[in-house]
Write a structure and sequence with these properties.
The chain is an alpha+beta fold. Helices cover 39% and strands 15% of the residues. The chain has five helices and three strands. Helix 2 crosses helix 3.
Length: 163
């Protein structure tokens, strides 16, 4: 049996993940409610999302749902359990998912660095031009305007003198 996920959402009372999917064998659209148990405002969202996605009862249904989307749903539930409104939880998640170009990534721990790298990889894949895209151009040549006089670098001058 193959299931195609159409929509995935969250219900706060009772806490559960709701999946609307299409069953290819019967050509019907169905709804599956997966209760969220043993989850509190102190729980780890990524761990809970992985456990749900790897659960044998739900694994076949959640193949079409990304782990990032499940993490977002758990983050919204965590915010709700912490007393935040839906808008506040969404803003907080959006702030966590954006990358500040001025941030020093050398000072991050391994877990945060891996999270930032996965966000960058996802953004790269989203913006990447593939050969099948209609606006794909094989060899692009761009000339950049030079409004200002180029300054020579000190290391470049020194290396020329040594040679």
């Amino acid at each position: 049996m193959t299931y195609i996920a159409k929509k995935c959402g969250i219900c706060f009372r009772p806490p559960s993940i709701v999946l609307i999917y299409k069953d290819d064998s019967e050509d019907k659209t169905r709804q599956r409610i997966m209760p969220v148990r043993n989850f509190s405002r102190f729980s780890d969202c990524s761990l809970a999302a992985e456990q749900l996605k790897n659960n044998p009862r739900h694994k076949a249904y959640l193949e079409g749902v990304s782990l990032r989307q499940l993490q977002k749903l758990y983050s919204l539930l965590k915010g709700h359990l912490g007393g935040e409104s839906l808008t506040e939880s969404l803003e907080k998640f959006q702030q966590e998912e954006t990358i500040d170009p001025e941030e020093d990534m050398n000072k991050l721990d391994d877990k945060e660095l891996a999270k930032r790298k996965s966000i960058m990889d996802e953004l790269f894949e989203k913006n990447r031009k593939k050969k099948d895209d209609p606006d794909f151009i094989y060899d692009i040549e761009v000339e950049f305007p030079q409004d200002e006089q180029l300054e020579s670098c000190g290391w470049d001058v020194e290396s020329d003198e040594e040679i």
